[in-house]
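User: Structure tokens for both sequences below?

Assistant:
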Amino acid sequence: MVSRKVAIHGLAALLLGAASPALALTPEAFAQCLNGLGQQAREQGLDPRVVERALGQAKLDEKVMELDQRQPEFTSSFADYYTVRVNDQRILQGRKLQDTHRDLLAGVEKEYGVPARYLLAFWGLETNYGGFYGNTPVLDALATLACEGRRGEYFSRELINALRIVQEGAIDTERMRGSWAGAMGQVQFMPSIFLAHAVDADGDGRRDLWNSLPDALSSAANFLRDLGWHPGERWGREVTLPADFDFRHAGLAETRPLSAWRELGVRLPEGDPLPDEQLQAALLVPSGHQGPAFLVYHNFRVILGWNRSEAYALAVGRLADRIAGAAPLSRAPVPAPRLRRDQVVELQHRLNERGFDAGEPDGILGPGTRAALGRFQHAQKMIADGFPDAQTLRRTGLISDDAAADAPSR
């Protein structure tokens, strides 16, 4: 017998076709898929009345499909990402909110071991401190994405988890609003994360991440603790590197104790030596050897458990530091040439063809591609920092001399 899950996703595939555009999902196909999802929810023990009422209101959202299919024309450099997110307004607002909610934050830190500055940083980056956490009906978004087919299995699970949240009484369907991808509340939890980690901190009997700040911040702290947060340790720190530093040591794949980085000449931004400790750290240089350098510790990897982007995790750490009074970076991030995703795919193909394994070409300048680019630079007797500056891209043949002359370089 074919399982209900297989039947639903088989239906989506037949309705859409592997290469069909997102907007091929018709209202009739959506309604048929929704019926199947409702049956799956009932088979998993949800109250039929909740399922019927909630899914009976769900609507196909073409804007959600467009956003899911849309690929950014250009990749975003660390300089672009960081400058927008760790800005003066967000730092100052975070400091003000730290004073306003001092008692609440102290209580959360005492219970979960996560300092206030980190909770504020997550809150600030996710929703600008509750200023905007999305206005898309979550059930519409998740049902649309489940039936669209591209990531149907994942979003089907999240839709059923959202129905469980409605069933437990955390929030009614009309007020369950969030991002176009279904992330919800002041700290933008997906439904599965909500069910596993959200807490009722204010004792009103509901886990309300929309309207209860105690619930939202405690839930964020609980999630981080469950991910393995080490109380009493920081995320990492900015450092400076010696002029002859071998950048092949950079990247999350290589960890050394602080004492070993100290022996390699890595120092604090003010020039003082690193602590002579055994704390394990990896080195990141997100905008090349002319930009800032960071040693990152265990809690940085915990932040990656929240969001797999290294740029996001660095922004969380640095925003937390700035809220706590730290100085700006001693070296500003360096702009990189703007590359379209198809250009990144071409770069990955070129690296692979030359024997520098960048993995399956996907148009994303992730750690694997950066590492491959660093190996290419080393073979070319360049500084092997993995940074796609104009000179490096010219050497790969990706851009011409004329284009390189107009692009940021070192």
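Moving on to the next sequence.
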Amino acid sequence: MSARDFVEKDYYAALGVPKDADAADIKKAYRKLARDLHPDTNPGGEARFKEVSEAYDVLSDSAKRKEYDEARALFGSGGYRPGAYAGGGVPGFDLGDLFARAGGQAGGLGDVFGGLFGGGRAGGSAGRAPRRGADVEADVTLSFLDALRGATVPLRLTTTGPCTTCGGSGAAPGTSPQKCATCDGAGVTSRSQGGFAFSEPCRTCRGSGRTIETPCPGCRGEGRAVSGTTLNVRIPAGVADGQKVRLAGRGGEGERGGPAGDLYVNVHVTPHPYLGRKDDHLTITVPVTFPEAVLGAQVSVPTLDGPVTVKIPPGTASGRTLRVRGRGIPGKGGDLLVTVDVAVPQKVSGEARKHLEAFATALPDDPRAHLAAGLS
């Protein structure tokens, strides 16, 4: 992204969001557009996909977004006019220093406008400086057990990076960009009005300081192209539904030797028919018979590492939760939480009915007696 992008391109319009949109709205808009414009499903949407990805790269980064908003505000209001005081204005007043202070550090607004107008301190070093690649997001769906144990999954990624045909120059192989004859490579032209000098981006080269006579057929002179690749990504054990896994350096390629961006994998986990998760604990509901609940029993309960025997204490009520230490989410130190569910048979044979009736007669107390007493 060149410095002129900060004043020429409306990234908010590209994503269809207002200027005060929060990070969640920006992300939501980007994900919808990226899904609709993905080259795998929309072969004619490569250019628009690139535009949306570039806009999201800036607006999703709070530092880049602040720099972009400040640059647009200053240029749009006419606040920056290098050379306005040349030839008899305010001696010793360096606009490069002013924008350096506004940016707060090297690489701030001073570098942005220096690269755009050829003024300031370094004559536009930012436009040629290394730039970090864009961060990339992908989604993956895992089964409950794969999420617990970890899995290696293939991910198909589509990113923008330097064009492999021209090496990022934008010029067809065998040719090279030429210095713009209109602005003499400065990227800016000046005009005088009254006692002031006004500067604006060169319309011939659009502020880049160079022209391309024979554009690269691969990227149409843009220097960047959409590319697809498949990565085998390892998802660590114990990942939870909705968790985002960051893979450093696996995102978009950097520009001019800059580092690659990061890959963020949004993990979706399908439910398991028996197992559940509560923080770092695993949960399971185990049916027991009425005699087992009354008299107590030893029951076998499945776990990720094989079955374990759980002691059901005599008189256990339905819904009671027992804890098996150390059998929770792998590597998280959690437990297995076993909830007892007393199974009530739907049909009872004649012999079993006789025993149940005898058992009911032998019960010493009415378990509902306290209810009536509480209302008297």
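User: Anything stand out in the second?

Assistant: The two ends are 81 Å apart (CA to CA).
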